[in-house]
Amino acid sequence: MAEDLTRRGFLGVAGAAVAAGMATQGALAAEGKEAPRGGPIKIIGLSCSPRKGKTTAAALQVCLDAAKAVGPNVEVELIELAGMNIPVFDPAAPGSADFEKVAAKLSDPKVAGVIVGTPVYFGNMTSLAKAFLDQCMACRQNNFALANKVAGVLAVGGVRNGGQELTIQSAQAALQCQEMIIVGDGRPTAHTGATLLNQNDDISADEFGLSTARNLGRRVAEVALKMQGAAG
């Protein structure tokens, strides 16, 4: 009984904090409505590398630049989790102020798309990425606040076939549980997502990988505009 109460307490505390940025989204969802159509939308790139300003952030910026180029009503923002306190998810423990702040941003009705970027560690996402996606249980508990937002995934590995696609699929599975709309990198590469090669902390020579990043950013923005009814 005590454990159940603790768990309910966690969901209540986390939910209340995240709900500050979800109020409009939750109210619209409860009424069976969507966010207002036709206005500007935002695409957020979420870097889950423990190293700030490195290749994952650089690859996400390529995605965001391509997304912004889709139309004048597309705004972009890069958020790096490096240095934030994102604890391993424990249903019996509270989350963190850093998580709640980022989750509130992602849950804003203006945010129509999210691109998650992570380095590849032993064929999978970083522990930071896993911790954040697990903490998003709070979003499910608040009217699925991320539902119907478009999601793409980017992975950066140390070798060409270093587990990027496995990492992307793992992150996509978590995002699907949020009722997000999952897209790949779009034409002409058109696979699971953006797959990049890190050579000495540099992705600039990986033209194929950069093309997948551009295609992913463009695809997320295009679908997000269609979902919001704002396509020209």
How many separate domains? 1
Overall shape: globular
Kindly report the name of the CATH homologous superfamily: Flavodoxin domain
CATH topology: Rossmann fold
Overall average residue pLDDT: 88
Describe the sheet with the most strands: 6 strands, parallel
Distance between the termini: 55 Å
Strand content: 15-25%
Query: In sequence order, what are the helices and strands, one letter per element?
Result: HHEHEHEHHEHEEH
Class of secondary structure makeup:
alpha/beta
Please give the share of residues in helix. 40-55%
Structure description:
Strands 1, 2, 3, 4, 5 and 6 form a six-stranded parallel sheet that branches. This protein is α/β, with parallel strands linked by helices and 232 residues long. Helix content is 43%, strand content 16%. Strand 1, helix 3 and strand 2 (74-80) form a beta-alpha-beta unit. Helix 1 (2-19) packs across helix 4. It is globular and about 45 Å long. It contains eight helices and six strands. The protein has helices at residues 2-19, 23-30, 55-68, 97-107, 127-135, 137-140, 164-176, 207-228; strands spanning 41-47, 74-80, 111-119, 150-157, 181-182, 194-197. The protein has a single domain (2-32, 39-228), classed as Rossmann fold, CATH 3.40.50.360. The longest helix is centred in the C-terminal third of the chain and has 22 residues, at 207-228.
